[in-house]
């Protein structure tokens, strides 16, 4: 695929000026994707995505463990509470328009400029909303005067990430549409690596919860720069259209509702823990959640990045879709079953049956089955209380999901 540095010289041998190079690069970025050898492209994309995912998840796993050693659960809890609203608003700022751009077949240049200005404007507006509502986030957390002040400051300081995130929508969408795997191979691992290095460095320097705020900004800047560089797209060479925005918004509306439902569920869980308990339990909850979501995120990242643009192109060719799609789906389903359902359960069972010496020496299987761990756990901590809390959180989460998913399903059927 083409980046902004791959533009050839003009017929007269002179290198074109910056604007002409940008125009040529943008034309290629919004051009039709190469559909020849699509099956091989899907296999290659899945392989690249899997390799990048393994690298990224190793970084994420190590970073989580190192930060758990350098930071207290309170530090992480403050960061989680401070970013509750911004994490929710980011899903709103994108509005599903990136997905609409990826599947678009015609007038892609104008669609790209339309999505860029719509999402950038929404990002700026929501950043201002985040700054103005930061005190409300502090009131929800209510960790005490000093800690609540830190939550408010983090909520306000993190508002700028919504603008940076909005700037990635079009470059990322066009790369995915073109089956440009540089985002998976370079951009995402680089972003994760920068966040890990910067946050760990500042955590070691004693910045506490602010280490993750600084790391988050460094990662976002890396994401923006690399996405724009590798996509080769620049705004201003096509005219945005309100009509196009309305057309794409109809497609994006169910995606927006799905994102809102998911963010409400996760934000409500964190808000309930923050309000009902304290920063420490919220931090411990987020540590455990990060580790538990690694397998599931891996499957989603591999499948969605490769299959969504391919199926979008083949939607009007059912015979070719059936031939091209089933083999990758079978491999993806097998990978999902192993990574998401089987391995985490087996791993937890193995760890729960280990002795302290087995855990210290490592290894997947215990040298002996130490069943006493279960009786010790019930005797030393209030496991029954934890189980009731988990059941209550699951019921509330399911109720919220159903309440919001039913209207979303209606919207998907209607539009």
Number of strands: 0
- CA-based gyration radius: 23 Å
Distance between the termini: 34 Å
Sheet with most strands:
none
- Secondary-structure-based class equals mainly alpha
The percentage helix is over 70%
Low-confidence stretches: 1-7
List the total number of helices: 18
Beta percentage is under 5%
> What sequence of helices (H) and strands (E) makes up the elements?
HHHHHHHHHHHHHHHHHH
Shape: globular
Average predicted local confidence, pLDDT? 76
Give descriptors for this structure.
disordered N terminus, mainly alpha, 415 residues, single chain
Descriptive overview:
The protein is mainly alpha-helical. 80% of the residues lie in helices and 0% in strands. Helix 6 packs antiparallel against helix 9 and helix 7 runs antiparallel to helix 8. The longest helix is centred in the last third of the chain and has 36 residues, at 279-314. It is globular.
Please write out the topology.
Blueprint: H1 18-29, H2 38-70, H3 73-82, H4 84-94, H5 97-102, H6 108-132, H7 134-141, H8 145-157, H9 160-166, H10 169-177, H11 182-204, H12 210-231, H13 242-276, H14 279-314, H15 318-352, H16 356-361, H17 372-380, H18 383-414
Helix pairs in contact: 2-11, 2-14, 3-8, 3-14, 4-6, 4-9, 4-13, 6-9, 6-13, 7-8, 9-12, 10-12, 11-12, 13-18, 14-15
Summarize the structure.
With 415 residues, this protein is mostly helical. It has helices spanning 18-29, 38-70, 73-82, 84-94, 97-102, 108-132, 134-141, 145-157, 160-166, 169-177, 182-204, 210-231, 242-276, 279-314, 318-352, 356-361, 372-380, 383-414.
